[in-house]
Amino acid sequence: MTLKEASTWIGLAVLTLTPMAAAVPAQAQIGPLPTPILPSAAQALPDRLTAGLEGVDRLARQTADQALTAPARLAQLVRRSDGALEADPLGWPVVRGEIVTLDLSPSARARAVSAGFTVLREERLEALDIASLVLAPPRGLSLARAAALLRRWDAEAEITFNHVHDVAGPLSAAEGARVAGDGASGIGGEGVTLGLIDTGVEATHPALTGSRIVQRGFAGPPRMGAHGLAVASLMVGRSGPFVGGAPGADLRVADIYGGQAAGGASTALAQAMAWMVEQQADVVNISLVGPRNALVERAIQRAQARGLTVVAAVGNDGPAAPPLYPAAYDGVIGVTAVNARDQVLPEAGRGPQVAFAAPGADMAAAAPAGRWTSVRGTSFAAPIVAGLLAREGEAALARDARDIGARGRDTTYGLGLVGVGSRVAPQAMGARGRLSR
Q1: Whether the Cβ atoms of residue 44 and residue 8 lie closer than 8 Å to each other
Q2: Does residue 326 have a cis peptide bond before it, meaning omega lies within 30 degrees of 0?
Q3: What is the pTM of this model?
Q4: Is residue 234 domain-shared with residue 383, that is, in the same domain?
Q5: Per residue in 194-242, pLDDT tens?
Q6: Residue 149 is part of which domain span?
Q7: Distances from the Cα of 188 to the Cαs of 127, 184, 366, 383, in angstroms?
Q8: Rounded alpha-carbon distances, angstroms, from residue 325 to 48, 65, 66, 294
C-alpha cells in the first residue's frame, strides 16, 4: 500500500467514527487523551475528509486497534489552551470551531449558510493564488460531522481543520515580549535572504546584530520567543566563535504565535508562506510539527513553484512516530539532528522525509536578554541546513554531506551529515540552561 493510499484509507475510517464522537459532550473532546500507539512511517496522518458517514461498524472495527492519535505532548496543547483549541478525530490540536475550505463551490457555500454554518472570514493569498473560506459549524454539530457534511455537499472541495503546529520546544519565561514589527535592524546581509516561520526574535541579540532582520506578526503583533530566537541564531548568527549556517544573511521572521493560545494555526502558517514569497526569500525554515493539512500543503506547493526552498525539522517524537509535517510534504527538505558524537538523537524522527542530518545537541544557541543556552532537538538542526542551502544550494550540499549511516541515502541520516562548523560547545559561549526540541 502506498503512502497516498494509506492516507486515503485512514481518512475514510476517521470519518466513520464521527457519529460516535458527536454524542460525546464538548468537554470530553478536549479531555485527557489515551497514550498513543503510534503508526508506522507508512501511515500518514491525513486531515483530508474523503467519505460520508456510511459503513460505520465495519471501518470502526478495522481502525479501533490502531489508535491513530497525535503524540501526547501535542494533545497537551488542547488542555493548556483554556478553550481556544479542541482536538480533531485523531487528537491533533485545532482552532476551536473553525473549518477551512478550499475551492468550495458557490452552491455548497449557500447550502452551508442555509444549514446554519457561519462564515468567519475569507482569505486570499495573492502571492500564492490561494483563496480559502473559514466556516464555523452550527451549534451542537461537531467539527468532524460538520466537515463530513461539507464534503458530501462538494466532493471536489478540500475540507480541513485549522490545525495548530507546535514549535517543538518549550516557551521560556521571557516569552511574550513585543518586538519591532515591519521595521528592520542590522547592517546588511551576504547576498541571500532567509525566512523563518516560528516565534518572533530578539533582533538586538549579539548573535543577530550583523543581519538585517524584518519581523511580521500573523497572530497579532510579533513577540519574541526563545524558540524562534535560538533557531534564528543558528540560521544567520555570528558572535565570536559562534557561527550559523549563513552568518550575516538577511532574515525575514514570520511570527505565527504572537503569544496567543491558538497561535501556530494553519491559516497563519499559509499567510506566512505567502509573505515569504512576497519578500523574495530564497530559503525558509520551519522548525514546527503538525499533521497533514490541505491548506498548508497547497501553500508550500505554490511557494515551491515560485522558487522558495522549504526546510523543516522532522520532529522529536521518536523513531516509531508517523511522518510529521511540514517536513514530510513533497519537496520539503527534512532535517534530523545528531549529538556531539555525530550519533542521531534517539528522539529524532525517521523515514524517507529525512534529507540531511546536522548538529542538534551539545551546542550553544542564542537565548533571551543577550544570553546563550544549550539546545537539543531537530528544531535546531534544521536552521543550520537552511543557512547552508541558501549559500551553497542543494546539489553542492549533497556532495559535501558526510555519509555516516547506511551506504547512500537512508531513513536515519538522509544524504549525510552537514554543518558541523555550527556546533559550538555551550561552555564556549557561557551558556546557561537548556532548550529542548
Answers
A1: no
A2: yes
A3: 0.83
A4: yes
A5: 999 999 999 999 999 999 999 999 999 999 999 999 999 999 999 999 9
A6: 3-163
A7: 25, 10, 20, 19
A8: 14, 24, 20, 11
